[in-house]
Amino acid sequence: MQSRYFTINEHPQGLPTRELFQLEALELPALADGEVLIRNSWLSVDPYMRGRMDGVTTYIEPFTLGEPLDGAAVGEVIESRSARFNAGDKVRHMGGWRDIAQLPAEQVEPLPEFDVPEQAYLGVLGMPGTTAWVGLNVIADMQDGDNVLVSAASGAVGSLAVQLAKAKGGTVVGIAGDQHKLDWLESKGIKAVSYKGKNARELSAALKEACPEGFDVYYENVGGDCLEAALDNLRVGARIAVCGMIARYNDDAPAAGPGNLAMLLIRRARMQGFIVFDHWEHHVDFVNEFGPRVASGEIDYQETVMNGLESLPDAFLGLFSGGNQGKMLVKL
Amino acid sequence: MQSRYFTINEHPQGLPTRELFQLEALELPALADGEVLIRNSWLSVDPYMRGRMDGVTTYIEPFTLGEPLDGAAVGEVIESRSARFNAGDKVRHMGGWRDIAQLPAEQVEPLPEFDVPEQAYLGVLGMPGTTAWVGLNVIADMQDGDNVLVSAASGAVGSLAVQLAKAKGGTVVGIAGDQHKLDWLESKGIKAVSYKGKNARELSAALKEACPEGFDVYYENVGGDCLEAALDNLRVGARIAVCGMIARYNDDAPAAGPGNLAMLLIRRARMQGFIVFDHWEHHVDFVNEFGPRVASGEIDYQETVMNGLESLPDAFLGLFSGGNQGKMLVKL
């Protein structure tokens, strides 16, 4: 059995080019005891993967040059030498960026049986959904009625964060770019603010207009001007959950930070970075609570789907140009 | 009875000049029922007062132009129309920046009776000491053995923070400027790092050399390059207590923030601003615990004393040029 996979042969500087990604193939060995063979049907691309391309350990191991990239994927077991899985089982695992994955069974988990499309376990009921929930509830300690600001509010994580926040009652404001993303936010009762054509000061003024009382919680996915504008609009005792700073992931050199960090002092605010994998103990509870709400349609999740293994690099690069609404996925 | 006091008649831009401060006098009215008259013996000048000169409400009300400035002071009751105080009582209150204060008795507190000089209640056993304690223990949740970094480590707050941290066991590093401050830190078993002549990158390298394992806690008094260098040297799960950012208090316009804020994410770190007045419920316990340790000489506190009411503006301005070691005080 052959596996086709993407790899990189050098560490990118700045925004990667399409040419960085090499499609390769290898002949898989026979399954060892305890291993399973999986035909992937859905592959995830996520902003955090950019950090793994730099060759330095940050909060996760870097990718190895010349080896298959990896990431979350959903697929079907086609051969098993483990008692835990049979051919035909639907599973989730980290052997993504390839069509066929060969993995030890202990690195593979069966999909829960909610009435949702299988790719939901890569988005709303996967890492992005859990990230939205942990950031709001564990890191930002969101309380009923809190005013919440979310950047990248129509992204995989942000589009769930705004809905989870909205359900708890306060004013929820989402920052996004394109008109169709703003429209989607407004359709969910979220006040939508566009960052396009605005510097930090103008964005700050727009946030103030959307929520004059200020924010108790800021769910940070972007950094840069969004952070600076948010810092201006914090209420006393505000909490900032730093999930990502995608505005900076492709910077060649460090860009200056916000000039108004002293707002943390003036507003006695807290700003905390987190990685969902540190809080994965909440994942099962999250899925059990939200699985039925996703199945019933109560929670609206967006997907942007590209087709075919060859589209993986474009899907990944689209994350940095606002090319996705909701979860970016590749369907095989 | 006449009271001589300092006031300001305009809001300063940038670093105030000596001429901003006007010495005035007023004839005090007869004491009303419930009031006391106090002859001040020690006056406090503190960095937070700069923020009160801008005419905008931040975390504390701004000074009123033309009215007496205020701040912490220690003195002796010379006349009382309150059952709580008698002439001769030693007291602490907020009617500083003047020689004679007339106040309602409920705004005045008697000095505790530890065997310490009375001005200690403006420093090591006053607001600065409580600030050091709250920042380390409440905000940064310092644990035994934590490695701790303190900026402005020979200042009123920093010089106590390093000693409180050192008593809990880990490596403690203090950032300061002048050689005599560095020497004092080393004499207390603190690793001293000079910021002088170093940019953020060089300061970061010096901190790495002083504590290669990185810091669990950063006690932030300065901002600017100190913050940037500290962010580079955080351990996973680090906590930053933002007590002050004196490097920025006199900026005319916002200066850019650190370019490496994403370290909060990479190290899953928390950064929290605080104002000691929000946590004043800890003050009495703090004084009762630390009063005996100060009296016994176990805790070494530094003072920089200027003499006479007229020296108040110079004492205050000295805070921004590194003119003080430990608590800056004016003795009347």
TrEMBL record, chains A, B:
Q: Which residues form the Enoyl reductase (ER) domain?
A: 17-330
Key words of the record: Oxidoreductase
A Gene Ontology molecular function term of the record: oxidoreductase activity, acting on the CH-CH group of donors, NAD or NADP as acceptor
Q: Which Gene3D superfamilies match?
A: Medium-chain alcohol dehydrogenases, catalytic domain (3.90.180.10), NAD(P)-binding Rossmann-like Domain (3.40.50.720)
Q: Does the keyword Cell membrane apply?
A: no
- This one is known as Enoyl reductase (ER) domain-containing protein
Q: Which species is the source of this protein?
A: Vreelandella subglaciescola
